[in-house]
Amino acid sequence: MGARASLTIPVLVICPPRALLLDCAGPLEAFRKANLAQSKVTFAVRHVGPQPQVTTSLGLPLGGIAALPETAPTGAIVLVAGAVDVLPDGSGPSRQDARDERAIVDWLARAVTPGVRLVTICAGALLAARAGLLRGRVCTTHAQSLDALRRIDPTLDAREDRLFVEDGEVITSAGVTAGIDLALHLVARHAGEATAVAVARHLVVYLRRAGGDPQLSPWLQGRAHLHPALHRAQDAVAADPARDWPLARLARVAHVSERSLSRLFAEHAGMSATDYVARLRAARAEEMLAHSRLDMESVAERAGFGSARQMRRVFVRLKGAPPRAARARRPASDRAGG
């Protein structure tokens, strides 16, 4: 990984009986690749559960599972995988499975306290709901489990047609591969958007959304393609939006002619190269406005704009509002004292 990571985030993966294997593997592959791609943060993954081994949805055993710890450390991510009703051999839930699920529910109710982020993948939301952790919250799960989720806790607000939903320290995802979207969201939050883009490319998933918002993240807009030359150019801009990016320089990075690159941006990204750079600079500026005390000129300079006036023009054109709107959304904790 190179330089030592400045932050380690414990990730406790709760393995229920009959665990859906992709629920575990998909998000964890995103975390693994993020660990290799940068040194800002390490996702320290541990599999835990009531049993040292479970039979997964494919009939394959998953071993090396540690016992459920007494507590989850502050700052940890507790990731609850979903499970299937019937295994490949035709067997369903056993009495021991029921006892193990009860042990997970009891542990979740006790260990998920303020400061611990709860993440559920697919039907893992059902265990969280049984623990009372979704009470009154907006959430989601696999479409086939929505009715069951609502029956467990009528106070929750279960949403359909969402990849994942974030409500405070609780994030719930929809079916199976949506767990990858959720993991990319966490990678972007803790390791940066450029790392999330790189991980998404590694996983060959480009149509990623942010949070419960149906809009595409600015960092991932225009990435729903498999053209390597265009991705090379987009990766370069994402890594350093503030750099001067004339078309000639981008074309050299992409190893194509300027004319070809212009055509690729129009055909595959649905925008010009200039517009793509502007969108990423606006996204970077929006992050700084929301999470720093920098003045407008400093934000504009660091994001790659020539001036605060130019930044304002781009914001109004792309977002329909001036930069001060992003500053107004700054968390109260960030505004305190300045």
In short:
With 338 residues, the protein is α/β, with parallel strands linked by helices. The chain is built from 14 helices and eleven strands.
Q: Which helices and strands appear, and what pairs or packs with what?
A:
Layout: E1 7-14, H1 21-37, E2 41-49, E3 54-55, E4 61-62, E5 66-67, E6 77-80, H2 95-111, E7 117-120, H3 124-130, E8 138-139, H4 146-152, E9 157-158, E10 164-167, E11 170-173, H5 178-191, H6 193-203, H7 228-239, H8 247-254, H9 258-269, H10 273-291, H11 296-303, H12 308-319, H13 324-328, H14 332-335
Parallel strand pairs: 1-2, 1-6, 2-5, 6-7, 7-11, 8-9
Antiparallel strand pairs: 3-4, 10-11
Notes on the structure:
Mean pLDDT is 89; it is low at 207-215 and 331-338. Helices cover 45% and strands 13% of the residues. The chain has two domains: 9-191, Rossmann fold (3-Layer(aba) Sandwich); 221-338, Arc Repressor Mutant, subunit A, CATH 1.10.10.60. The protein is elongated and about 65 Å long. α5 runs antiparallel to α6 (193-203), α8 (247-254) packs across α9 (258-269) and α10 (273-291) crosses α11. With 338 residues, it is of the alpha/beta class. The strands form three sheets. Strands 5-2-1-6-7-11-10 form a seven-stranded mixed beta sheet, with helices on both faces. A two-stranded antiparallel sheet has the order 3-4. The longest helix is centred in the last third of the chain and has 19 residues, at 273-291.
